[in-house]
Design a protein that fits this description.
flat, 6-stranded mixed sheet, 348 residues, 38% helix, 11 helices, 5-stranded mixed sheet, alpha+beta
Length: 348
Amino acid sequence: MGFFSNLFRFSSHDMAIDLGTANTVVYLRGRGIVLNEPSVVAVETLNGVKRVKAVGDDAKLMMGKTPDSIQAIRPLRDGVIADIDVAEQMIAHFIRKVHGGQRRFMRWPQIVICVPSGSTSVERRAIRDAASNAGASQVWLIEEPMAAAIGADMPVTEPIGSMVVDIGGGTTEVAVLSLRGLAYTTSVRVGGDKMDEAIVSYVRRNHNLLIGDATAERIKQEVGVAKPPLDGIGLTIHVKGRDLVNGVPKEIQINQGQIAEALSEPVGQIVEGVRIALENTAPELAADIVDQGIVLTGGGALLKGIDEVLRDETGLPVTIADDPLTCVALGTGRALEDPIYRGVLHSA
């Protein structure tokens, strides 16, 4: 019986989920990352009854373009669940999707989910309940910066201080790690979403043009920069939106210098979070960080020049993880698979 109980305890159905504000990435035991889709759910209301119309990629395409009866909802805000019912349906959909839609004969999976280090016990309970109701037999939680550090191959189990800065969609997690624990952590509620909002408000303020979040995200990904280009202009991009003066659609041109100006506030808040963490780090760990440097993970690490800005501000070496977008999911998956990391998981 012992053999079979062990066999069932760690089944191939077990999964690790990076439940992000912008994207949800799913890692399946023994198979690696099997799904990476936007954390968006399209809900249709007919005669007062709500039903899910689309999830993930399909729902993201509908954002900002839905009729009155359909709402494209992002159930997570600032890295935590804002709409528990919709989050539950989204998790259930992704569980079904990675198992090919099959639920018969399937043992309920154990699920490891990462949470922002600054999340409250109420927020953690919401995540646990959503995963349990979606079909998890057991839910484990791992703190996001710890997952990011494991995914970036940092020496988290050794007595060496290392610093990770995980810039996600809703939050930026700054943490100093040593011996499987977080020696210091701070969670700044600034990430990719705030960068998009900064671009929207800049274009509105300076060009009287109203653009949507999807357009702002495209601008950020294509020409976004954390520091102004040397000539102050750099690349230019055409942006379409609605003219606020006469209400008609219009196209304008903006350059990288303007984008850097638009993003200066969110980037400055991230730098401030890093500075506060360094000020609060024990001297011995600080000495290690001088050697090890800072590792950037998360989608925000892809913003051009953000590593240079941090290097200039701190004087420390700054490197970007190999695959910053999936780092947290990879680390969460390794914590699920490798017994050496068992101590970093918390039963929810």
